[in-house]
Design brief:
Elements (H helix, E strand, L loop, with lengths): L1 E3 L3 H12 L4 E4 L3 H8 L10 H11 L2 E4 L3 H4 L4 E4 L14 H10 L7 E5 L7 H12 L6 E5 L9 H6 L4 E4 L3 H10 L1 H5 L4 E4 L1 H32 L3 H9 L20 H14 L3 H28 L8 E5 L14 H11 L3 E5 L11 E3 L3 H5 L4 E4 L4 H4 L3 H7 L4 E4 L6 H6 L3 E3 L8
Parallel strand pairs: 1-2, 1-4, 2-3, 4-5, 5-6, 7-8, 9-10, 9-12, 10-11, 12-13, 13-14
Helix pairs in contact: 1-3, 5-6, 10-12, 10-13, 12-13, 13-14
This protein binds uridine-5'-diphosphate-glucuronic acid (UGA).
Length: 434
């Protein structure tokens, strides 16, 4: 089989398929990335990925290429794992998917199953199938199925090898059988499977991300209520989370969601809902987005207020740049939005992240340790909850800063340790900390 596109999703899927015993060729237009992957190395930080790449590239079970002619005759199944970024107005930009199928299709001279994994607006799979059939010499013998991916960055390998569920969107018994053979190992492990049509498969993925985003914005709205009324949102989340119908996951209040998926996927769902006249859904999503955006604004304003109303010329230590811990990904990172706003307000921002490497950007100094970030800081911001930040000794850090004021944007620091060490600790939604 082939896997077209080798970023987070494609590289992990290709390695996972090899681990399931398949022979896999990964395809990408980026020749530097292909070279890295062929050497058994990962171009992204993802726990457990590199050992799998090493293991399977060394036996030849897994290879990578930039050349579509190598896969066209060789593979019966082609997975599409390309990026589907936001285009204008939040509408999904399908150009990577289109470019890939436009290159592959004219080379397809025998029957093949094209399996989409990317997150796409409902209706894309059917349109892609028509597009491929028009271009492929094998015509109607080419079929499209949709098998959305639910992996989380930082847990990509675990989620690929032991998924919560599999979704097989197909419109023929043959396509379904092929997918069942490919996933024989997780199916033997009793992984739940939903067998459905193409539209349902596309919508399942979009709604999973929309529901997760809604959960986060709900708890952040409740954090605002706790703030206004003097309650504690962490205890509230624990208590409602014990209800099995609600569950505690994705009820961590703080800076809200970012990354390459949730923000763009919900924006795309809202656009598609409007196109189809389902305005109740787009209204809901716009509220979720507004709450999420509000968290970033509120944190930046809080930092300015805590720094005496003006951060101009003040030193701000920012702990965390990745959009969440466990990854080096900074796409749509809440931490960077806050850092950017404080820089725009005139602050001297020093930022430390254990994994994320920022391209040089004006106004930011990326430093190599918490201590360097905190040196003579007027205010310290904890914006991505890396476990190592919970190990910080507040007494020792207190010696380095100019003012012992810290805003915990992720509500993960142990408040008494900081206050006992003489710090002013601010956590939105936790009573008594403002
Ligand atoms: C998300 C989904 O969780 C995956 O299931 C999905 O496959 C993936 O998008 C995708 O569509 O490819 P990911 O983007 O890796 O995965 O990140 P999440 O773990 O969902 O976190 C998203 C954001 O929400 C992060 O910024 C995180 O800090 C934030 N978050 C998460 C909260 O603010 N509170 C929480 O309780 C949980």
């Amino acid at each position: 089989m082939s896997v077209i596109g080798t970023n987070y999703l494609g590289a992990t899927h290709a390695a996972g398929m090899a681990e399931f015993g398949h022979h896999v060729i990964g395809v990408d237009i980026d020749s530097a990335r292909v070279k890295t992957l062929n050497a058994g190395q990962s171009h992204i930080f993802e726990v457990g990925l590199e050992p799998m790449l090493e293991r399977h590239t060394s036996t030849g079970r897994l290879r990578f290429t930039t050349d579509y002619t190598q896969i066209a005759d060789w593979a019966d199944v082609h997975f599409l794992a390309l990026g589907t970024p936001s285009g204008s107005g939040g509408k999904t930009d399908l150009s990577q998917l289109h470019a890939a199928v436009d290159t592959l299709a004219p080379l397809l001279t025998k029957p093949a199953l094209i399996v989409g994994k990317s997150t796409v607006p409902v209706g894309t799979a059917v349109a892609l199938e028509q597009r491929i059939r028009r271009l492929a010499p094998a015509g109607d013998e080419i079929e499209v199925a949709w098998n959305p991916e639910f992996l989380r960055e930082a847990y990509a390998v675990e989620d690929t090898m032991r998924p919560d569920r599999l979704v097989f969107g197909t419109h023929s018994a043959h396509a379904l059988r092929v997918l069942e053979e490919i996933y024989a190992i997780p199916l033997t492990d009793r992984t739940p499977v939903v067998r459905c049509d193409l539209a349902t498969a596309e919508l399942i993925k979009a709604s999973a991300n929309a529901f997760l985003a809604t959960k986060i914005s709900f708890i952040n709205a409740m954090a605002q209520m706790c703030q206004a009324a003097g309650g504690d949102v962490t205890l509230l989340a624990d208590a409602i989370g014990y209800d099995k119908r609600i569950g505690r996951d994705f009820l961590n209040a703080g800076l809200g969601f970012g990354g390459g998926c949730l923000p763009k996927d919900i924006a795309a769902l809202a656009v598609r809902a409007d196109e189809l006249g389902v305005h109740v859904l787009s209204d809901l999503i716009h509220s979720v987005e507004a709450i999420n955006e509000g968290q970033r604004t509120e944190l930046a304003e809080l930092a300015i207020a805590q720094a005496g109303g003006d951060v101009h010329g003040k030193r701000v230590a920012v702990l965390g740049a990745a959009f969440k811990p466990g990854t080096d990904d900074t796409r749509n990172s809440p931490a960077l939005t806050v850092a950017d706003r404080l820089h725009a307000a005139g602050a001297d921002v020093r930022i430390y992240d254990p994994q994320a490497r920022l391209p040089p950007r004006e106004g930011f100094t990326q430093v190599a340790s918490v201590e360097q970030a905190a040196h003579r800081a007027d205010i310290t911001l904890h914006l991505t909850e890396w476990p190592e930040f919970r190990q910080i000794d507040p007494v020792a850090l207190g010696e380095l800063v100019r003012h012992k004021v810290i805003i915990d944007g992720r509500l993960k620091l142990h408040a008494p340790s900081w206050t006992d060490a003489g710090w002013k600790l601010v956590q939105i939604g936790r009573a008594g900390t403002l």
